[in-house]
Amino acid sequence: MKLNIGCGYDYRPGWLNLDAAPESAADRVMPAHDLAFADGTVSEIMAAHLVEHLGFFKTRYFLSECWRVLAPGGVLRLETPCIEKTFSAFLSGDPKTKEEALGWVYGPETPGMGHLYCFPRDLLASLLAESGFKLGSLTEPAAMPSRPVLRAEAVKAGGERAALNAALRRRLLDAGLAPQLTEEEAAGLEDAVRRLLDAGSDHAAALEAALISAPAALEYFSLLEENEPRASAQAAAAGRLAGCGLQARLFSEFRSAVGAGLDPDAACAKALAAGRAVLRAAVEGGPLPAAPQEPGTAVFTLGCAAERLRRERAADLRGRG
Fold first, then answer.
1. How far lies 244's CA from each of 21, 210, 275, 287, 305, in Å?
2. Range of lowest pLDDT (13-17, 58-62, 79-83, 139-143)
3. How far apart are CA 3 and CA 66, in angstroms?
4. CB under 8 Å to 234, separation ≥6 — which residues?
């Protein structure tokens, strides 16, 4: 099976054409970052001018999903605007060239067609490698001077980290934890995923990621120990931490500390210190505080907490008005 993902109106006979837009020429309507195919069932994937529409965070899930569904040695081909050459064309071009280059950077104004993120060569190569691909070529085929293209061809390689990355992100998708988050929450969840992947066999280090996202840590340990007859102390603790609404509790601590006059950095440090005490209690089997009654969140970082507090204050001001 060969997939043409983000096909738009570029229908390819002999391929399964996919797009998120119902009005496209797709055989099946499906989000690129959440592929409804079994592991290792695809031989080739084409994604022409797709990732710039997904944005930075969804592209990570798109690449992990491509790795998951491709068979060993399967090929991923993608094209995206070459941002470096586009900038160069803009800086050196006449007014018409500048206008065309800006349109190439930002995309059409048609709803859903704008570009969310452009990927420089080094970043695209890095993301492919992190997702478990071996880059075969990264070329710049001939195009209009103001609309240069970057074309990558990569092969699915092996590796435990790549397999764990794809499986963990799949579980986060299935659990509804990603990637429909605010910018700050998505960045925080990426930090949690990186820490979990970096932890390796160090379960204590992996559990520390529960301070950022206890639900993500729970998915990690559930994946790691799904064939174990008995959960480790850290896996059991992750379940307890997710159940007690740890991230909502950390935000509540942050809000109170800011209200008491602490600056955001100090308030975050205070909240994390309280969180570490809850984490220790969870590992030791001690009682945990009841989950907060207020709506919670799955991610806690300084950026997430500060942004949420700004939104709350804005809503309060609107209510008073």
1. 38, 12, 11, 10, 18
2. 139-143
3. 10
4. 203, 204, 206, 207, 221, 283
Residues 6+ apart with CB under 8 A from 110: none
In whole angstroms, give the CA distance from residue 216 to residue 213.
5
Q: For the chain, give every domain's residue range.
A: 2-158, 181-320
d(CA 205, CA 46): 38
d(CA 8, CA 24): 5
The pTM for the full model equals 0.94
pLDDT confidence band for 321 (50 / 70 / 90) = low
In three-state secondary structure terms, 311 is helix
Beta strand 28-29 with 133-139 is unpaired
User: Which residues does residue 184 pair with via DSSP β-bridges, in sequence order?
Assistant: none
At 174 the three-state DSSP class reads helix
pLDDT digits (tens, 9 = 90+) for 226-253: 877 788 899 999 999 999 999 999 999 9
Q: What is the mean pLDDT of residues 72-81?
A: 97
Other beta carbons within 10 angstroms of residue 229's beta carbon come to: 5
Q: Which residues, other chains included, contact 312 with Cβ-Cβ below 8 Å and sequence gap of 6+?
A: 255
Residue among 149, 83, 78 at smallest CA distance from 122? 83
**Topology annotation, domain 2-158:** Rossmann fold (3.40.50)
How long, in residues, is the chain?
Answer: 321
Q: CA–CA separation, 288 vs 291, rounded Å?
A: 9
Structure tokens at 157: 């390689």
Token code pair at residue 251: 């935000």
**Cα–Cα separations (whole angstroms), residue 217 to 71, 141, 165, 169, 240:** 28, 43, 13, 12, 11
